[in-house]
Amino acid sequence: xxxxxxxxxxxxxxxxxxxxxxxxxxxxxxxxxxxxxxxxxxxxxxxxxxxxxxxxxxxxxxxxxxxxxxxxxxxxxxxxxxxxxxxxxxxxxxxxxxxxxxxxxxxxxxxxxxxxxxxxxxxxxxxxxxxxxxxxxxxxxxxxxxxxxxxxxxxxxxxxxxxxxxxxxxxxxxxxxxxxxxxxxxxxxxxxxxxxxxxxxxxxxxxxxxxxxxxxxxxxxxxxxx
Length: 226
Ligand code: HEC
Ligand code: HEC
Ligand code: HEC
Hints:
Layout: H1 2-21, H2 36-40, H3 61-68, H4 102-105, E1 107-108, E2 114-115, H5 117-125, H6 130-133, H7 156-159, H8 218-225
Antiparallel strand pairs: 1-2
Bound molecules: heme C (3 copies).
């Protein structure tokens, strides 16, 4: 299973190299459609399958994400139109910080503020190094250069879900007792590896103080050798 995932990553790496030598992958990804779509496809394209665990979402990323945000478009969108979608700027919706994707895919890294360093390091761990190698995020994409906060640290929207968003995940360790999980049934079963070390949720030792470690999972076994 893991071998398949790594193989998938290498396949994408091949694409990344081609793009890197070309044009598009060198650009900064201020917007979803400025690079993320090269690998993840259109956000509104139907029948998305997770690049992380292969799980079919049964619809588009857009529809699942809309559900999690309770249909509050301005969680991600800004201005009068619906395009472009900027990764770290939105109108904020009802009581949410106006930080778009960073609300769930970013965390407060202390002096660096709220950044997507954990997500960049997840890509780096899976051999997708373009965020750092093109120079834009050379300071935090490589785990050996920058240490991110642990898996257990809540992304801003989890910590402050505003009003009318009951389905925003409420814990990065996927703590079911907290209410709404991070590994949403309609999406990838794995949830998010928020700190980018390749180990998910309760398999991550950072979650040990919060929930028991699942030593039977690959994540738990790997964590013991990290
Ligand atoms: C070069 C290809 C590539 C590009 C460009 C890319 N991704 Fe990914 N992304 C992947 C692959 C492959 C995975 C799955 C890695 C794994 O877990 O095996 C992934 C995983 C993810 C995940 C899931 C992380 C997790 O914790 O499971 C998110 C969220 C994500 N990408 C968002 C983005 C965003 C946002 C952008 C643009 C800023 C982006 N990606 C650009 C290939 C890419
Ligand atoms: C989780 C973030 C998120 C939420 C919430 C969200 N969207 Fe989007 N939306 C996106 C992304 C990302 C795109 C793709 C933008 C791109 O590819 O340029 C998009 C694209 C669109 C587009 C196509 C725009 C174009 O001209 O191509 C429309 C229309 C749209 N969204 C409507 C909505 C509506 C209506 C809502 C609320 C009911 C909503 N969205 C909620 C992220 C979101
Ligand atoms: C309300 C929180 C939230 C917001 C805001 C959010 N995401 Fe996500 N996103 C998630 C969760 C949770 C998952 C993983 C779901 C799962 O695994 O079940 C996810 C998964 C993804 C994936 C799929 C990774 C894979 O497995 O292949 C991509 C790509 C992604 N998000 C991009 C974005 C982009 C781009 C934005 C902003 C336009 C955004 N997200 C905003 C919570 C959010």
